[in-house]
Amino acid sequence: xxxxxxxxxxxxxxxxxxxxxxxxxxxxxxxxxxxxxxxxxxxxxxxxxxxxxxxxxxxxxxxxxxxxxxxxxxxxxxxxxxxxxxxxxxxxxxxxxxxxxxxxxxxxxxxxxxxxxxxxxxxxxxxxxxxxxxxxxxxxxxxxxxxxxxxxxxxxxxxxxxxxxxxxxxxxxxxxxxxxxxxxxxxxxxxxxxxxxxxxxxxxxxxxxxxxxxxxxxxxxxxxxxxxxxxxxxxxxxxxxxxxxxxxxxxxxxxxxxxxxxxxxxxxxxxxxxxxxxxxxxxxxxxxxxxxxxxxxxxxxxxxxxxxxxxxxxxxxxxxxxxxxxxxxxxxxxxxxxxxxxxxxxxxxxxxxxxxxxxxxxxxxxxxxxxxxxxxxx
Length: 378
Fold this sequence. Notes:
By secondary structure, the chain is α/β, with parallel strands linked by helices. It contains twelve helices and 13 strands. α6 packs across α10.
C-alpha cells in the first residue's frame, strides 16, 4: 500500500538543505551509511561511483552500497552486488548470508536511492530499528507514489527544485520534510570539441520508452534536417521495449540508414564523445539526468521547455530550450548549433560553469554528510 502524508512528528521542524551545513556529531565519530540501489548502470560513469564514495568518506562517513545488479566494471569492496535482492522471497536469506560472511556492516542509517529497493529498506528499518532517508530523483516516482515508513523515514531528498515543489501537491507531504540536494557532477577537462569537427555531425537523443520521451518527435526533426540537405547521423538511446518501434518509424521517414537505436547502456563515455549535439526532447516533466552528463562532456545541448529540464538549461546561456512536441523547433535548434560552432562552444563553456556552481560534487557531499548527521542527532 502506498503511504502518503505527514511523517511521524519528532518534535522539530525540518529545514531545506539548499546550502552546506556543519554537522553536529563530534570529530572522530564514524557514521555508517548503507546505500540501497537497484541496478547501477553505466550512467554512473567509469570510476564515478568510487570517487563519490571517497568524497563521502572524507567527511567521516563509512559507506557501503548494496545493489541488485551492476553494469559497472568495479572491484570496489564498498559495492556489494546480490541478484537475490531482486526476489522478495530470497532477500532475507541474502542479507543474512552477507552478514554472516562479514561483508555487510550494521549501519547507523540507510539511504535509499532507488525505489526498486523500497521493500528492503522498509524491512531493514523495521526489523533493526534503523532510520532511513530516501532520494526522489524522477517525476515518474511521484506518479507511482512512494511507500514510506512513517516511523523510520526521516527525510526525502529531491534532486532538484521542480521535484521538491511537486512533492507536496502530488504526495501530500509537507515541504518541511523535504531537502533539495542537486547531484554532484564532475565535468571533464576541457577539450577541443567543436560542433562540425567531423565531416558528418552526429546528433544524439535519449529518453524512456514511453511516448512522453519525445523520441518520435525527434525522429520527425531528423527527417526535417535530412530534407533540408544536412548530412548528419543520429543516435537514440532508450530501453529495449521501444527500440523496434523507433527503427520502424525511421524507415517510414526514409532515414533508417542514418539512425542508430541502442539501449540506455550505451550512455557511457563513448556515446558522449561521439556526439556533436545532444537533444532531450521530453514532452512532459523529466529529471534530465542525461542533460547533466551532456553538459559534463561538453556536448552542446537542446532541451524542451518542461519541468525538470529547465533546472539544467537556461536558454541562450548554457544550451537551447525549445517547445515540447514541436519537431520544426528541434530541427531549427540543431541547425543553429551546426551552423554556429562558435556559439555552440560558448554554450558548452557556460554549461561546464553551471555544473561547477549548481551541481558541485563537493557541495553535494557536504550536504549529504550534514543531513545524515543532523537526522541522527535530532
